[in-house]
């Protein structure tokens, strides 16, 4: 079972240049937390706010403890093969990213799936900073 206090590297899938979008707000808020290595994932960008943005989870070539999905369920479903290829053990589906298909595919792949909760508020007990 996922222990957030043991998580060192988080990939946020769905970061964009729009500061008002939740993917960006989740990314920037998690980046403010000491001790976390937070990676931005979006194939449309190479850099945002001076941070490198990776096109996909496999391209990071880093050990990722948790992938946070802030994308529509159809996109998340397609990305689960990358989660498996990258050896990521857990996925957090932010509100709006969950679907029965995504949850079932996680179960099929043996990926722990957290859903119906916000990683910022429910996971870390933080407030959004942005």
From TrEMBL:
Classification via InterPro entries: CoA-bd (IPR003781), NAD(P)-bd_dom_sf (IPR036291)
Pfam families xref list: CoA_binding_2 (PF13380)
Signal peptide limits: none
Domain CoA-binding, residue spans: 4-97
Protein name: CoA-binding domain-containing protein
Species of provenance: candidate division WS6 bacterium OLB20
């Amino acid at each position: 079972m996922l222990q957030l206090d043991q998580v060192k590297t988080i990939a946020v899938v769905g970061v964009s240049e729009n500061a008002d979008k939740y993917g960006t707000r989740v990314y920037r808020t998690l980046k403010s937390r000491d001790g976390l290595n937070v990676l931005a994932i979006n194939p449309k960008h190479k850099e945002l706010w001076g941070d490198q943005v990776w096109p996909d989870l496999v391209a990071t070539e880093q050990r990722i403890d948790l992938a946070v999905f802030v994308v529509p369920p159809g996109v998340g479903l397609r990305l689960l093969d990358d989660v498996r290829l990258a050896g990521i053990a857990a996925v957090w589906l932010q509100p709006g990213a969950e679907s029965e298909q995504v949850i079932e595919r996680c179960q099929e792949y043996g990926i722990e799936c957290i859903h119906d909760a916000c990683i910022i508020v429910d996971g870390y007990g933080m407030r959004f900073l942005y």
